[in-house]
Amino acid sequence: YSTSKVLFNVNVYNMAFHNQIMPNGPLSISGIPLRQNVPTSYRRGIEVDGKFQILSTLAIGLSGAIEDARIGIWNDATTGERAINTVALLTPPFIAHASIEKKFSCITFSYVHTERGSMFLSNMEYPINRLSQTRWDDISVRISPSNDNTTVKFSISNLGNAFITTGGYAGATEPYVYVMARRSFNITITLR
């Protein structure tokens, strides 16, 4: 759906897979995710994306996804255990973004808030391999002089300096996680 003030998209999906090759959690000695074949799996969900132009200088954005990703029968190659209808690794049940953008002549201010649901580092749903639900905020200020030849953008990612896990893999006794950088500052200069 699209008008001069509203842009709204919805995507609904229901994907069934047979004999899919899935990552199983651990990494090989060279650091590549190990994979194994699963007889059946599926991903079902809905994605939404909207932008609302409140004023000519003010816009609000909302986007998100809700997903159920499951494996019919999972035989863990590492432990020999079996799981039925288990959650696929690294697939949070939801992710959502809310944003606001305000323009002041040649300056644009942007703020984005993100929420991500918890997810597992393995297909066995062990509590030790669960990454917690998390949230973070990013802001930016973009300066574009009227001649439009140069743009300077100042941004701060992870404004609240939170410890945010983005992925990882299941270890033998404890998980190994990848983390987003703590509060970071960036300057981007574009010359045309």
What does this structure look like?
This protein starts with 5 loop residues before the first strand and ends with a strand. The chain is elongated. It is mainly beta and 192 residues long. The strands form three sheets. Strands 1, 2, 3, 4, 5, 6, 9, 10 and 13 form a nine-stranded antiparallel sheet that branches. A two-stranded antiparallel ribbon has the order 7-8. It contains no helices and 13 strands.
Q: Give the radius of gyration.
A: 21 Å
* Total DSSP helices: 0
How many β-strand runs? 13
What is the general shape? elongated
Spell out the helices and strands N to C. EEEEEEEEEEEEE
Spans of at least 5 consecutive residues with low confidence: none
Helical content class: under 10%
Average of per-residue pLDDT values: 92
The percentage of residues in β strands lies in over 45%
Most strands sheet: 9 strands, antiparallel
From the N-terminal CA to the C-terminal CA, the straight-line distance is: 34 Å
Q: Give the helix/strand class.
A: mainly beta
Q: What is the compact description of this entry?
A:
With 192 residues, the protein is an all-beta fold. It contains no helices and 13 strands. The mean pLDDT is 92.
List keywords for this structure.
0% helix, 13 strands, 67% strand, two-stranded antiparallel sheet, elongated
What's the SSE blueprint?
Blueprint: E1 6-27, E2 33-55, E3 58-75, E4 82-87, E5 94-104, E6 107-116, E7 119-120, E8 130-131, E9 134-143, E10 150-157, E11 165-169, E12 176-179, E13 184-191
Antiparallel strand pairs: 1-2, 2-3, 3-4, 3-5, 5-6, 6-9, 7-8, 9-10, 10-13, 11-12
